[in-house]
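Good morning,

Attaching, inline, the backbone tokens for the sequence recovery test we're adding to the shared suite. The designed sequence is right after.
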């Protein structure tokens, strides 16, 4: 039987679940940082693109500026997380992870709270995207180095 450890009660257990193979984290601090930085650059360079996906109306100058500032925020958080992950200083990694988690958690809550002004579909879509980053942030915190 491939993957089963001899002498165990459950011979049907795959080897990875018994500790033979190391767990590969789906998201770590560096990966989340690069992903966030990429999203930030995309929002700075082409802020109209996500607004056109919503399809409700043509983006205004104010909404384009808002998307660019969100992009700058994500770029700074992402590059900070990458720099902290590269430094290997546990406290720095934890602080940047916490900042990103707070930002994404608040984005999720605010997205859900704004369904009256932007519509249910767009509110749920924005909340789902932010929540995906919350999940990645939490995974990165679990795999971050400890002091």
């Amino acid at each position: 039987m491939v993957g089963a450890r001899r002498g165990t009660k459950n011979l049907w257990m795959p080897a990875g679940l018994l500790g033979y193979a190391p767990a590969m984290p789906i998201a770590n601090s560096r990966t989340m940082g690069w992903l966030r930085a990429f999203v930030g650059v995309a929002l700075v360079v082409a802020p109209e693109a996500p607004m056109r996906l919503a399809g409700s109306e043509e983006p205004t100058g104010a909404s384009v500026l808002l998307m660019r500032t969100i992009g700058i925020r994500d770029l700074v958080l992402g590059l900070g997380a990458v720099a902290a992950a590269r430094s290997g200083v546990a406290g720095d990694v934890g602080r940047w992870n916490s900042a990103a988690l707070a930002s994404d958690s608040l984005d999720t809550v605010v997205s859900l709270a704004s369904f009256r002004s932007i519509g249910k579909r767009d509110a749920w879509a924005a909340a789902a995207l932010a929540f995906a980053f919350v999940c990645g942030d939490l995974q990165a915190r679990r795999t971050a180095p400890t002091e």
